Structures are given as structure tokens and as C-alpha cells.
Amino acid sequence: MMPAIKQIAIIGMGLIGGSLGLAIKASQGEKVEVTGIDTNELSMLKAKQCGAADRITADYKTGIKSADMIFVCTPVLQIATLIKEIAPHLKPGAILTDTGSTKTYLIQEITAVLPPGVHYVPGHPMAGREKSGIEAAVDTLFYDKWYILTPARDGDAAAVEAVRQVISWIGARVTEMNAAEHDWCTALISHVPHIGAAALVNLLMYLQDQENSIKLAGGGFRDTTRIASSNADMWADICMTNAEPIADSLDKFSQIVSQVAAAVRQGDRESIHKFFSSAKQRRDELLLLEQAASEQPLTNEHL
Amino acid sequence: MMPAIKQIAIIGMGLIGGSLGLAIKASQGEKVEVTGIDTNELSMLKAKQCGAADRITADYKTGIKSADMIFVCTPVLQIATLIKEIAPHLKPGAILTDTGSTKTYLIQEITAVLPPGVHYVPGHPMAGREKSGIEAAVDTLFYDKWYILTPARDGDAAAVEAVRQVISWIGARVTEMNAAEHDWCTALISHVPHIGAAALVNLLMYLQDQENSIKLAGGGFRDTTRIASSNADMWADICMTNAEPIADSLDKFSQIVSQVAAAVRQGDRESIHKFFSSAKQRRDELLLLEQAASEQPLTNEHL
């Protein structure tokens, strides 16, 4: 039977944690009590002020002790350490979940320290904004977005169902995936494009006359390179926690780029043309798949 | 003395040629006669209908014979061939210019066939839209955009001045650059990012379960990969006409990506962090330069 979720603790009241609190309160009102936990006093005050949490505390232990479900929304490298700290203080039957963007690493670390009777359901919401912090939190952040869960095969089905229910409250679409598959896909579809964008900006160190040549960017430079201005700490952590899929995919990417360079050098127009037309074709195919997926009814319509 | 420009011929009435005609007519009205030249009958009819040209013809020779200035706005690989064909029919003193995005190759090809008394001023407007064709032409396409000229050092100064004047009519900002520098900068700042985006899409052939994994793209897939759906023919031609700068820059790009892969594999967080933070810093610096450049008064305010 699915446990009733009356008390939710959110650790890390930034963009994700704050938006989660706002969305849960907007959907459930007084039916669910949200405790916001953060060590940053200002973030906590703002979280309370904007209604992302009913109560706030900097003390993990008291914040989580009566929670039915705990969302850990801190930067990815802090998640495992933090869970090791709080694990002994979780109540029996508590459901632990996180919003970290790499999963295999976290599952290994967390499973090792989980007390008996506490269930861990790894999660990854496909939601974000350019801005970060509690100031950027909105109750619509997850609406109509995919929310991936990567539960263990032998995990507790009722715990997964409970997390799915909370996800339905925030209006997201839930889907399940194997954790390793998740990490490889994320590397290909998100991490490598991000690293590629930063590499393209770093490549501009070879511009001889930066002042004059920036005019050639055609005004779109701000937009096309925006991704490269993201948080260096966060991205270094992502690379550290999803190393093999990222390194392997970067090598594949580098190979593709080298092959194009060779074709260009040889004046092999046929190969170059094929490269561009297959990119167009692959994009069109993936857009169709994406559209088909997004036309599936929302999770909360199922419930 | 700068020659008076009363008759302008535009060869290739697509997005660029059509927008050029519209902008010249909007600025100069009856003072300048625009002849639109294209082999596509429908494009010509539309060009006439929307007012991008006063008269239209499919016959290059009659279209250009009395023109004071000729803009060649066809795809880049057709420019040189076309100019070879029309060169003997240009009137003495005519000023020839083009809008091709690679310059060294064109200058070599065109200089070789230019009749005496005809001046060639290579150009490259930093303007574009996602859509193409005369249907997408607008008279504001060049407004406040950079328009690069790469004239020869020993070229005719009055001819350059005349092209600058027409560029001021269409509201663009003009700047001059060495042709080789232009091509290297364009490779780094425009061609390689474009090829990189197509390579990122092609990398997705390694996705095992495309249907499920596209959900991980987080809804931004359409936007972030839009550039990869561009015209394969046009981009193959760009690669063919700017081969050395593109191949060399792609190799440098591939090297940067491989270095990141190695750092990720070694768990070298310091190098990874430095990679991301230097991208952010370089972007910020270039944005400042871009802003400073765009705050210079518009060309037409000088005249």
C-alpha cells in the first residue's frame, strides 16, 4: 500500500528545492507540511517568505526526523555526503529521493549507507532556468516537464508510487529508466553539448583581433554561448560524478569532429554533405519522438 | 570622386538579395533603380510584387549592362562561376560586390577574370534569418547589423566608398577587415560552431533507446539543435570554399574536447573547473567587446 505523505522535507532551498516547495504547497495546501532545510540563512528566510516552506531550519536532524519523504536538492557532489550524515536520523519507512543529474554514482554511495526500512528512489527532474537560487524559484518550474526516476529493480514499489504521486502534484510527467542508461543518455544529450558549448567559447582564444572579429559573431553571440556561462563548480561536479559516460561520449564527439576536419581538408564534398544532411535528418526524427512523448497525457491525469 | 549610384543590379533574389532590394528602395525610392536578376521565375515575380526590384529579368547580360553597382547574392559556390560569365558584359567603371560568407577563395577566383575598369569590393553582411527565400525578405534585415568589407589594399578607394554608401542606405554598420583574417575569424566564430552543433546531433546516433532518452533533452532540444537543420548544400559549399581555416579550427576544437575527456577520465577536477571558468570569463570579455562595438554610432550617421 502506498504510504500517506503528510510531511515533506526539502534539503537545499535553491531553484529546484524552492520550486518544489512552492509547487507542492500550491497543489496540496494545508494537507502537506513542507519543511525547508538549508544552511544559508537568507535562502531560508526567502523560502519562508515566498511560501516555499511552512517551516525552515538549518538543523538537518530536526528537519527530517518526522518527514515521510525527503527531497535532497543540493548540488550533486554534496548529495551523497549529506545523506550519509542524515541517514541515521531518518524515521523507519521514510522515503528518500534526490534531484541529482547523475544517478549511478549516487545510487552506489547512498545504497551503502541507507538504514533498513528507509527507501531510496533516485530522481532527476528535467527542469531548470538560467537563473539559480531561491529568488528564481517558481511553482510552475516542473509543469509539463519530464521527471525521470531510476529505481532499483528490487526496490520498494510502494515507495516509487509515493514519489510518483508527489511528482504528479507538481505537474511533471514521470518516466522510469535504468540508472546506467540514464547516465549515458544524459551524457550524450545534455553533458556533452554543454561541454561542447564551453569548448567553442574557449576555442575563441585563437581569435587574433578579438575586438574586430567579435563583429563577425553577427549579434547572436550572447544567445548561442549563453550555456557557457553556467556555474563552473556545478559542471565540474557533474563531470566528476558521471565520468565514464562523459569521457567516452566526448571522445566520440571529438572523433566525429576530426572526421569532418579530414573531409574538409580533402575537399570531400560528398562526405561533408552527408554529415550535414544526416544531422538534419536525425534532428527531425528525434523531434518527432519528442513530440509524440510530450503528447502523452500528463501523469496527474492518470491518477 | 565617389561615383553616383543610380542603377543597382542584384543577382540572386533570395533572402539576402530580396532584403537588399527592399532596403535600398525603402531608403532611396525613385532615386535608385533596382534590377532583380534570378533564374527562378517565381522568385522574380515575388520580388517584383513585394517591391524588392523595379524590374526583373532572368537574363544576366541585359540585367547588368547599365548597372553602376552589382550585388551578387547567390550561394557562395555559384558566385565565382557567375561572375566569370557576366564579367565581359559589365560596363566600364561598374562596381561589383558580393555577399558570400568566405572571401579569400572568391577574391582569387574573381580577381582573375575581372575586366579592366571594373572594381570588385568583397563584402559579407552579418545578417540572416532562419527562413530563406524571397518570401522571408524584409527591408530591416541589415539594420544595425555589421556588414564586413574586405577590399584589396591596392583597390579603388572610390569604389569602396560607393559600396559603403549603399550599405549606409540599408542601415547596416560597415567595417573593413583583411580577407584572410575574415576567413579565419569566421571559421572560429561561425563555421566551427555550426559544424559542432551538427556533430552534437550526429553524436546522438549512440543513444540506445531514442524514444525514451529524448525525454532527457528537457524540452529544449528543438531550440538548442535548430542550427543543425540548416541547408546542407550551403554548408557543404562553405566548407569547400573556406577549407583550411575550417579544418584547422576543427582540429583545434577536437583537441580541446579530447583534453577535457582526458581530464574527466583522470578525475582532474581542477583542470575541469578551469575549463568551465575560463569559458565563462572569455564569454564575458567578448560580450563587453561586442557591446562596445555595437555602441559605436551607425555608419549612416557618419555620412
From TrEMBL, chains A, B:
GO aspect biological process, one term: tyrosine biosynthetic process
Protein EC: 1.3.1.12
Entry keyword set: Amino-acid biosynthesis, Aromatic amino acid biosynthesis, NAD, Oxidoreductase, Tyrosine biosynthesis
Xref: Pfam families: PDH_C, PDH_N
Domain of life: Bacteria
Ranges where the Prephenate/arogenate dehydrogenase domain occurs: 6-294
GO molecular function: NAD+ binding; prephenate dehydrogenase (NAD+) activity; prephenate dehydrogenase (NADP+) activity
Keyword Cytoplasm assigned: no
Catalyses which reaction(s): prephenate + NAD(+) = 3-(4-hydroxyphenyl)pyruvate + CO2 + NADH
PROSITE patterns reported in the protein's UniProt record: PDH_ADH (PS51176)
Presence of the UniProt keyword Translocase in the record: no
InterPro entries membership: 6-PGluconate_DH-like_C_sf (IPR008927), NAD(P)-bd_dom_sf (IPR036291), PDH_C (IPR046825), PDH_N (IPR046826), Preph/Arog_dehydrog (IPR050812), Prephen_DH (IPR003099)
Signal peptide extent: none
Pathway(s) where this gene product acts: Amino-acid biosynthesis; L-tyrosine biosynthesis; (4-hydroxyphenyl)pyruvate from prephenate (NAD(+) route): step 1/1
Protein family: Belongs to the prephenate/arogenate dehydrogenase family.
Protein name per UniProt: Prephenate dehydrogenase
Organism name: Sporomusa ovata
